[in-house]
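User: I'll paste a sequence; please echo it back and then give the predicted structure.

Assistant: Echoing your sequence first, then the prediction.
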Amino acid sequence: MSIASEPMPPPLASADRAELAALAEDTIAKGSKSFAAAAKLFAPEVRKSAMMLYAWCRLCDDVIDGQHLGFSRRPVAEQPEPMERLNHLVIETLRALDGDTGLHPAYLSMADVVRRHALPTRLLIEHLEGYRMDVGETRYETIEETLSYCYRVAGVVGVMMAIIMGARGDRALDRASDLGIAFQLTNIARDIVEDARLGRVYVPAEWLTEAGLEPRDLTDPARRDEVAGLAMRLVDFAEPYYSSSLVGLSALPARSAWAVATAHGVYRQIGLDLKAKGAAAYGQRVSTSRAAKLRHVGLGALKVAATRIPLPARRSPKLWTRPSGRAIGAERTSGDRRTRL
């Protein structure tokens, strides 16, 4: 990676930002009902930025998977090669950061969020690196390697969202990373069969060996009990990350903390429901009901209230931690200088 510095364009005018935020909100409503429910709790300006960043993440996901809003996979013959799609994402992302306005609205939304909140561009690159792992069909031998992938595709998004909400300092951002990792572990547990059908196996090889499975066995209904065992193990493995992430709520404004606590509960519920269904969930996409989402809105408020009560400092468990770097908040990425790929 080479380093160059140059002026960064200013954030968007209010009207342009409002238009992009409205498009992003529509994207969220169609592509992620769980995030859409939690996002309603953010303060208006934080909500706009969170939705606009999500729109870029959703676009990245769709481009790599050849989908639209997570659905409707296009025939392989109609799509560019995976590496070509990834290169397109990287180029368009950098063009947006350079001030090019003739791009998909999701790129323009992302660029505005970067400028407005001084997001380090290395976080965007780390997220794109997660997609490179998908495109390169990376195989994961150990759970630590799976966690490295989880950080890039989800933990780093948690870090960016936390910065948007005003969090600074390694302690708060580590907890945001933990929550993203927990979300991704839940995703992997839920989608083991669907991912395996696409040739993607995120369960570490050492876990497969311990379960007496080969990657090809994940799509065999006759092995549903063993596959369910792997899903349950992933759900259990995510629990310390969900627990650790709650420590970070105290670093956020109350409304943002409420939204995060709600998302925490809604997504964790997916894992709990997956465990409850066991082998019966094989090949199904488990989701949280509307009633459960509403229940977690109330529970989220209680979680936030608990973090506002002065208590002795809690020590987080020793978990996989995000790559070290300069403390975010000291790093300048908006205004007059930025780091480029």
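The chain is about 60% helix and 0% strand. The CA atoms of residues 62 and 68 lie 6 Å apart.
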